[in-house]
Amino acid sequence: MSARGPAVDRLLPLDGLPVLAVPAAEAERARELAARHAMVSEREVDLADPVITRVERFAAERDRPAVTDAARSLTYGGLAREARRLAALLEDAGVEPGTVVGVGGPRSAAVVAAFLAIELIGALYVPADETWPAGRVRDVLDQAGASVLVVADEAESAPALLEGAAEAGCRVLRAADAAGREPWAGAPRLDALDRPRYVLFTSGSTGLPKGAVVEHQGMVNHLWAKIVDLGLTGDDVVAFTAPLGFDISIWQMLCPLLVGGRVDVIGDEVGHDPVAFARAVDGQGITVVELVPTMVRHLLDDLPDAPEGSLGGLRWMIATGEELPAELARRWLEAMPHAGLLNAYGPTECSDDVTHHTVTAGDLDLLRLPIGVPIVNARLYVLRAQDDGTWAACDAGETGELFVGGVAVGRGYLGNDERTREAFYRDPFGESPTGRLYRTGDAVRLLPAGAGGADRPTLQYLGRVDRQVKISGVRMELGEIEAVLQRHPAVGAAAVVVHEYPAG
Predict the structure, then answer these.
(1) Measured on CA atoms in the order 195, 198, 203, 204, is the torsion positive or negative?
(2) Angle formed by the axes of helices 134-144 and 159-167, to 10°?
């Protein structure tokens, strides 16, 4: 069982990371190319303001609805009070700054309040999805070193959550038990922008999940990136559709709260039914939705069964989590010309998305859609491995591996130094405020300005670097072959694999 205590004690320090092998001349060239092709984005945003501070400010200024789920609606004042009561419950349970707190249950207003309570205390949030088996819950809570699990469901909790928490040695607290408590009266505990804010577990090749740790500054920077690029205001309503274990759940439940907007929680029963989902979007005034392309396809397929004019109030559809096929994008632009289509890309280890691209008709003739340009305060480098083990910079039109620098880069994997050293490096370019560089493992190509509908250079995703194969001496990207197949209107999805047959 993992040790309990401050998570930072189980994070590899910066001087424990390897330095990426980039010769001085190539490092200078990489910096110059990133600047020339606008792969470096700099914008001043307020990273020091915790989300709960904004929530309480809006509560004082104009107490309007903040988060709505199937059972209730909380105003900004109600959300702040619930968060502070939960913070009091956590402190009474011995939660201290830097410790890890699990949150389990279905998506709900209580989950949002629990995150804000953890932020108030200065602890780290780690989600435990109600659909996980007990073994997965146990592994996540155990590896995270969680001291308690807050069960946000007011009804009977999923037995797997309780079983997993017991096996991990976690104390279980029910969010409902905070009702009637005196609200916690302290100021939000944010002593440094690099304080770890949450841990999300991704699949591990060893069979055990690995916990990616994101700092406060990376999380808040990503929230503001969404606000800037989507033009979010207090009039927007964002659908909270993602399972708690997915990184996109963080921005969906927090981003609207920075601008006075509303979070609308969509349960699985509605979210998995395209017609019911379309009705919910219309009935609840939702303006921003984020789905994986597979779900976008199902939504478009079933729209003829929805009421006429469905999704008429939608401003943005964000596609993420899977590659967005050009043919699916064409269908969206034709069916929903009033709603922008944003192609988003990013790893959990870098605070979620690091690129955004608004898809236009001009992009549709490309073999693969662009993933776009860096979000605010991200630094992107396209590098190729040399035979001598060093790395060289790639220019426009060349294929290389994507590396991420800037404030978005997280702290590594909690309690897993070996895996951290495989993906995180000390920044050889000397420009990252975190001092870290993340190796994505993704092959990309830098498209020159004018490619597709873009007026500036953009990145094109080509697949995982480990899916590049050599056949008869020719390097091929399996993802490119899949992209060609998916351009045919009769093909919904395609997978390409290589089979080797013995000679003769």
Answers:
(1) positive
(2) 40
Q: What is the mean pLDDT of the chain?
A: 91
DSSP string, 341-392: EEEEE--GGGTS--EEEE--GGGGGSSS-EEEEE-TTEEEEEEEE-TTS-EE
Distance from C-alpha of 384 to C-alpha of 228, rounded to nearest angstrom: 32
Question: Are the beta carbons of 100 and 196 closer than 8 angstroms?
Answer: no
Query: What residue type is assigned to position 392 of the chain?
Result: A
The arithmetic mean of pLDDT across residues 158-166, rounded, is: 92
Q: DSSP letters of 400-425?
A: EEEEEEETT---EETT-HHHHHHHEE
- Name residues whose C-beta falls within 8 Å of residue 254's C-beta, 6 or more positions apart in sequence: 51, 112, 115, 219, 223
Q: 127, 102 in Cβ contact below 8 A?
A: yes
Maximum distance among all Cα pairs of the chain, rounded to whole angstroms:
79
31 within 8 A of 438, measured Cβ to Cβ: no
pLDDT in tens, 18-59: 999 999 999 999 999 999 999 999 999 999 999 999 999 999
Full-model pTM? 0.91
* Matching residue, tokens 């069982």: 1
**pLDDT tens-place string over residues 263-294:** 999 999 999 999 999 999 999 999 999 999 99
